[in-house]
Design a protein that fits this description.
Blueprint (H helix, E strand, L loop, with lengths): L5 H25 L7 H24 L4 H27 L7 H29 L8
Helix pairs in contact: 1-2, 1-3, 2-3, 2-4, 3-4
Length: 136
């Protein structure tokens, strides 16, 4: 069983926060709380990209176990943002939907694994070098 390097998870999660936090703020300004439509879908997709960014960062740092670190970094990124989301919803008196939290955490973990897989693929591609490319 691999042991998580929490400094890597924390560093990669904060990298993902650089994408997720501005998107969350813009989503609240443009879409509002619980909105739907094309803007909400766009912000949701960019948020998923932020979770993949956290996974990519973890996969680049920990090449021996990229996927587990990528998933953990994305879930930590999600948890940090969600804590602030829950607090602000409670402060406004809005309802909470607890079912969405674990489902979104699973989605964040999947995007973190995807980002880590991309980092691993890119690292392996770079390791092969230009010698294996077809002559052009």
């Amino acid at each position: 069983m691999p042991v998580l390097d929490w400094s890597v998870v924390r560093t990669a999660a904060f990298g993902g926060l650089f994408v997720v936090v501005p998107v969350a703020v813009l989503a609240l300004l443009f879409v509002g709380d619980g909105g739907s439509g094309p803007w909400a879908s766009l912000f949701f997709l960019v948020t998923l990209f932020g979770f993949a960014t956290a996974g990519y960062g973890a996969g680049r740092i920990r090449t021996d176990t990229p996927m587990i670190h990528g998933a953990a970094a994305a879930v930590l990124c999600y948890a940090i943002v969600q804590v602030f989301g829950i607090v602000t919803r409670l402060a406004r008196g809005a309802d909470l939907n607890p079912l969405t939290y674990p489902l979104t955490a699973i989605l964040a973990a999947m995007m973190g694994v995807l980002g880590a897989l991309f980092a691993d693929w890119y690292r392996r591609k770079q390791a092969r070098g230009p010698a294996n490319l077809p002559a052009g």
